[in-house]
Amino acid sequence: MPVTLVIHGGAGNIHPGMMTESQEQQYTAGLRYALDQGYAVLNGGGSAQDAVVAAITSLEDNVLFNAGRGSVFTKKGLHEMDAALMNGLTLEAGAVAGVRNIKNPIVLAREVMLHSGHVFLSGKGAGEFAMSQGITFEPDEYFFNKDRYDQWVEIRDSNFTQLDHKGDNLKGPIPNTDHKFGTVGAVACDINGNLAAGTSTGGMTNKRFARIGDSPVIGAGTYANNKTCAVSCTGHGEYFLRAVVSHDISCLMEYKGLSLQEACNVVIKDKLVKLGGEGGVIAVDALGNYQFCFNSAGMYRAMRNSEGREEIAYYGI
Question: Which of 75, 128, 282, 312 gives a 20 to 30 Å CA spacing to 227?
């Protein structure tokens, strides 16, 4: 059975010329290291679920990505993080939203799945559960990043929100085309043909009202089912929520018999576009087939499989 790991670090208006050679090298190194961590689990006969957690943990620890340590600032100058994990064999899932000071939200999502008796925990309650499970907490200083802070300061006195740390206003007097969505995610197919998917994000800069996007919502930003596929999404969350993107891809495969590629294309390049949504997905099926599918200019993405293939890319194809 082909073993496959696919990861993403966000999608959006990512195009040649927007990054220096040094920045490209940093992103390449970050994506490759996450591949190394996740694929080592698969290569050792480990589960897709554990591989997904290992890869996402690496991305959460990297300040380049809007998740974990690299999370953006909210309206109140805090960090509120979301994450979800789903097991394609059992359809078990765990998710957290609006958690603070959790070093690795994806690890907490796994604990929710395995030990809470629930699927979705939020805010202070999720924090209480994390303490009961011995999850690692970090002080606010751990999550501080000068670039993220400066970008928040520019808009903190307004009601604008930014989709990521490059200054993309959701609403405002001046359109900004520099959209980049910093969510991270991973999907995997292990040696037994079992699938798993996970997603983690720091949300939107200057977000208010404890806003939650699609990332931790099972069936919207994250979904896995051995019968069909495992999917992790990145993009403008409100649209992915409305379109129930990850589950829709699975349903097209299960009920209409579409291939992984066909299902991804229908949802991302047709249905989502008609709604006005921008972003993309990574996906894998139980045969180890994988897809990068996005309707934006680019997506930080990478994959590795047991057939010797490895790919790391940013820009459109």
Answer: 312
Report yes or no on 230 lying in a domain.
Answer: yes
Judge whether 314 lies within some domain: no
Residue 316 falls inside a structural domain: no
- Give pLDDT, residue 112: 98
What does the pLDDT look like over 265-286, one tens digit per residue? 999 999 999 999 999 999 999 9
Q: Are 60 and 66 in contact (CB under 8 A)?
A: no
> How many structural domains comprise the chain?
1
Catalytic, 183? Answer yes
Q: Which residues contact 54 (CB under 8 A, 6 or more apart)?
A: 37, 38, 40, 41
Q: Out of 4, 57, 74, 183, which one is annotated catalytic?
A: 183
| Range of weakest confidence among 56-60, 158-162, 194-198 | 158-162
Is residue 235 annotated as involved in ligand binding?
A: yes
Q: Hunting for tokens 């019968």 — which residue is that?
A: 227
> Domain range spanning residue 300?
4-308
pLDDT at 158: 80
User: Does 211 appear as a known binding residue?
Assistant: yes
What is the C-alpha to C-alpha distance for residues 24 and 266, in angstroms, rounded to an integer? 31
Does 115 appear as a known binding residue? no
Q: Identify the band that residue 204 occupies on the pLDDT scale cut at 50, 70 and 90.
A: confident
Contact 232, 279 (CB under 8 A): no
pLDDT for 172: 38
Overall average pLDDT of the 231-253 stretch: 97
Angle at 199 between CA 56 and CA 191, to 5 degrees: 65
CATH number at residue 122: 3.60.20.30
The residue written with tokens 């057939």 in the block is 307
Name the pairing type of β-strands 81-87 and 184-189: unpaired
Q: Is residue 295 part of a domain?
A: yes
